[in-house]
Every structure is written in structure tokens, then in C-alpha cells.
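Predict structure. Input: 3-hydroxyisobutyryl-CoA hydrolase, 350 residues.
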Amino acid sequence: MSEPVVLISQDGQAGHIVLNRPQAINALTHEMVDLIQAALESWAVDPSVQTVVLTGSGERGLCAGGDIVSIYQDGLAGGTASVEFWAAEYRLDATIAEYPKPFVAIMDGIVLGGGIGLSAHASVRVVTERSKIGMPETGIGFFPDVGGTWLLSRAPGELGTHLALTAGSVRAGDAIAVGLADWYVPSDRLPGLIASLACVAPAEALAAVVAEAPAAGLLADREWIDAAYEGDDVVKILARLMGSEVGAARSTADVLASKSPTSVRVTLRALREAADLSSLREALDQEYRLSLRFQGSHDFLEGVRAQVIDKDRNPQWMPARLDDVAESVVASYFAGLGADELGLSQESAS
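Output follows.
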């Protein structure tokens, strides 16, 4: 008999959620989302649970994101399973962000896409020397969802824009610097931290194990990043990168040019609009609109095919150039859904 995809348990005053698909780096499914949501709702009113702890099974990471193969297959078939998954996933992300008790996310190893949604909205976010955290979506013809536009639009300067458009990833020091994590704990101290959380509050447990985070390399590049990524025009951003006197900027231009032009343009607008929104729930509502428009789109299906299915790493984007993505096409991704809106912001206000 196979093990549950999420392990739910309690140790002292700590409720434990363990993502349990190690063979898939704990890639997130709708079933997993529902199990986590149910546990959080139960623990929120259970006085015996004072802290929630999220970890991933296996040695590779907390979570490699949503189960992209299932989403791809659903998109090919024109199904609705992905839409239902995103609705549940985004609602869970809002639940975590607003959770009434300390939520400790152990962001050890790989944390990508949907894994960011589960962890970077937590009240206590722990990274280690093994952490690799990122939103790789523009490389598969998608965009940084699960509240990614909200988080990255609030990073210092244009660091979040840089990571979002280039599908970049960061290690522990940079994750803390850009606002995706809070505390650095060497991985060999994690067992002690988790054991302590059974009997003491997170602040006391962390005090015994935290260490100084590694240097944040992105901060050293902030001058050219801020200069290159200002404004709302991706074509101008690419031109600035290409014409920069800084070698790293010119190399970044090649990376940016390899991503889905449609995804890059939609992502930039989504970041700029998210920066002006007043709540994560509003950002998740906007991301839901975008997700539904990307589902079944050429670039999303082609990007997943090239990166995950066939693994030829040679996606054929349509259109193939940033210049050829019409503003009307970008605007169409943001159009309202009418009766199909997710409506998280309305739920919050009621």
C-alpha cells in the first residue's frame, strides 16, 4: 500500500505537514493541496497546536512546484482539472499568508514555483546552504504565480523583476535579501530546530540554531539591475542589457531573450500591476486570470514539452520575438473572467 502524499502529525505543540512525493521532489497535486488546507483549518481552532511546521520528504528539496506534467496533459486535452487545482492552490496560499499561528516553512533544497506558494508566504521562512529557490515559469511559457508577482514586485529595487523575467533562482543569502526567506539555519541543525518546536515558540527555537547567512550576491549587482529593468517596456529592458558595459548584464540579455516572449511581457505587466495592489488576495485573483489564459496556450504547452516532456530544451515560441507580441494580446490575459473570477479579495472583504 502506497504512503499518503502528505503526512500530517502532531509532536507536542507543533503540527507537522510533510510533503511526501520524494520521487517527484514533492511536486504539488490537487490532493496534496486539499489535505494541507484541511489540516490548517483544523489546527487553526485546536489549542493544542501552537505552531505549524512544513517540510518535504527526501533529500532533494521541499517542493519542485506544481505537478507540471498533469497540468500539461490537462491543457492538451482542454480539461478543467488545472483550473480547479489553481483555485484550490491559490486559496491555500492565502490561508498560509493569513494563518493565525506561527507557520514555519523549512525551505531546504529545491523550492520552485508552487513550493514558493507554500513557503514564502509563511510567517517564519528558513533556508539552508542547500536551498535553491526560484520561479522558473517564463522558461516554460507561464508566469510567476502562487503569489509570486506579489512577492517579487516587493523585492528591493528591480531584483524581483530580474528574477521573474529571467526565470532565475537564488541561494540562501539572496533569498533573504529579496524577501523570500527570513532565517539561515545550516541543514545539520534542522533536526534540533524541529525537535525544539515541539515545546517552545519559533523565536526561542530559532535563537539556538540560526547562523549568519551567506553573502547576497544579487545585492552587488543591484546597480546595473535597477538601471536595466526600470519601466514597463521589455524591449527597452532587453536593449539596455544588451548595450550594458557590464558583462553580467550582457549575459543576462541572452538569458532573457531565450524565454517565452509572451510570458516575459505578461509577467512584467503583472509585476507592475501587483506592485500597486493592496493585498495578496488581489494579486492571486489577478494571477488566476492569467493562469486560465495561459492554460492550453501554445507557449505553455511548447515550453513544458521542451523542458519536461521531450527535454530537448529547444522551445519554439510563437511569436518568437518580444517585438512581435502585440499589446492587445498582453491586455487580453488580464481581462476579467466575469462569473468565473476566483474572487479571493471579495471573500476577504465579506
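The chain has a mean pLDDT of 96.
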